[in-house]
Amino acid sequence: MGIIQIGAIGVIGAILAIQFKSGKSEYGIYISIALSLLIFFSIVGKLETIVQVIKSIGEKIQIKSTYITALLKMLGVTYVAEFSSAICKDAGYQTIAQQIEIFSKLTILALSMPILLALLETIQAFLG
User: Among 33, 62, 66, 105, which residue has the least CB neighbours within 10 Å?
Assistant: First the structure.
């Protein structure tokens, strides 16, 4: 799907969700989640292209596959965390959304540790 279709789906979904919130608020949340999932799966198709390009670049400039894998995992963690956090915020559960965001930041920090250690080893090799 293109950006125009996604934008139209988003606007129509928001209008429908607002309409249903006045009567039965849970229907508005269900519509919001359903449309978010539809957009999410549209984005996953685009992410496959990005992953292939990143892997291709990594092969051409000879980056260790561990670094590429860590980068892709960070990308996935970021996207899933943002998506789930936004849904929780939309439903009115800000505390849960904040916990998801904190967990994702710590996960990204943990995933970046091997890269940080390799950087420090490289700096140490240049200095020593």
Answer: 62
Spell out the residues 6+ positions from residue 60 whose beta carbon is closer than 8 angstroms to its own: none
The token pair that represents 45 in the structure block: 């198709």
The angle subtended at Cα 24 by Cα 7 and Cα 4, nearest 5°, is: 5
Instruction: Render pLDDT for 85-113 as a digit per residue (tens, 0 to 9).
Output: 998 998 889 999 999 999 999 999 999 99
Distance CA 110, CA 104 (A): 10
Taking the C-alpha atoms of 68, 70, 71 and 77 in order, what is their torsion angle to the nearest 10 degrees? 150
Q: Which two tokens stand for residue 66?
A: 């561990």
Q: What is the pTM of this model?
A: 0.75
Structure tokens at 50: 């990005």
Distance CA 13, CA 36 (A): 9
CA 22/CA 24 separation, integer angstroms:
6
Three-class SS of residue 93?
Answer: coil
Task: Write phi, then psi, for 2 (nearest 5 degrees).
Answer: -90, 175
Structure tokens at 34: 């359903």
